[in-house]
Each structure stands twice: as C-alpha cells, then as structure tokens.
Amino acid sequence: MSTVLDFSPLFRSSVGFDRMLNALENARRVASIDNWPPYDIVKTGEDEYRITMAVAGFTEDELTITQEQNMLMVAGHKSGESEENGQYLHRGIAGRAFQRRFELADHVKVVGAGLVNGLLTVELKREIPEEMKPRRIAIATGETLPRVEARQAEPEKLAA
C-alpha cells in the first residue's frame, strides 16, 4: 500500500524550501530502486559523512566519481573481459556497469575517495562558508549607538 503525500500546502506557506520539497516529490516518484552495488551511508562526525560501496572486481581505472553542484555520481564500467581462463558455467560475481547518484545538501563536498578490498569509500564534508555561519552582534548601550552613514551623492552629479 502506497501513501500519496501532497506537498502543495508546504509550497504555499514556505519560502526557500522548494529544492527540498522537489527532492521529496522526486523521491516519491521513483519507480524501481536498483540495489546494486550495495552501499552504506554513515555520519562520521558533526558535518562529516562516508559512503561505502561494494564494488568487488572493479579497479580504480574502471570507476568514476563525479560531483556536479549538488549531485554525486559514482559509475563503474568494466573494461573488455577475456575468457582466456575458460568458459563460465555460472557467473555469480556481478561485473555489470552501474551508475549510482546521490543528492547532496548545500555545501557538501567530496574530500577524498579510496578503494580497498573491493570497497569504494567516498568521504564527504559539509563546509559552510564564513558569511553563512551564525555571528554574534554587539549591542551598544547609552549614547554610543553606532550610526550607519548614508552615502552622499557627489555634488557634480546632482548639478547635471
């Protein structure tokens, strides 16, 4: 049984959350979820994350990690396989090409990636710019209130 959620009331009463609401809407519409290759997403710190994917049989040259704005794409494509070791009677180790996409929040960047023992690890960190971090505003007391100077127009420009 599927529950259909209507996000339109949220669009009417919120400002600036349209990207998040669109992501929720798109996630609801996903028809089938491909669960290969398997992966884990772990929060390792306050603003740090790790994605670990099981990519047994792939080498570093056959894997591609790309970050474009708020989208992280991990793709794998096997190079030409030779059957010089014999003919397969059963092929249980998946070696098919894949592309896995992860939607990233604002200011999340890839800080590193590694491949060890068939596990691809991608380290992520949220780096909020200084101008967006909370800052404390000093409160003046008494007659020492700070004044914001209005910019005066130059007299030459007023005469013209």
From TrEMBL:
Domain SHSP span(s) in chain numbering: 30-142
SUPFAM superfamilies: HSP20-like chaperones (SSF49764)
Residues making up the signal peptide according to the UniProt record: none
Record family assignment: Belongs to the small heat shock protein (HSP20) family.
Keyword set includes Repressor: no
Keyword line: Stress response
Pfam families: HSP20 (PF00011)
Protein name: Molecular chaperone IbpA
Source species, domain of life: Bacteria
CDD domains: ACD_IbpA-B_like
InterPro entries, sorted: A-crystallin/Hsp20_dom, ACD_IbpA/B, HSP20-like_chaperone
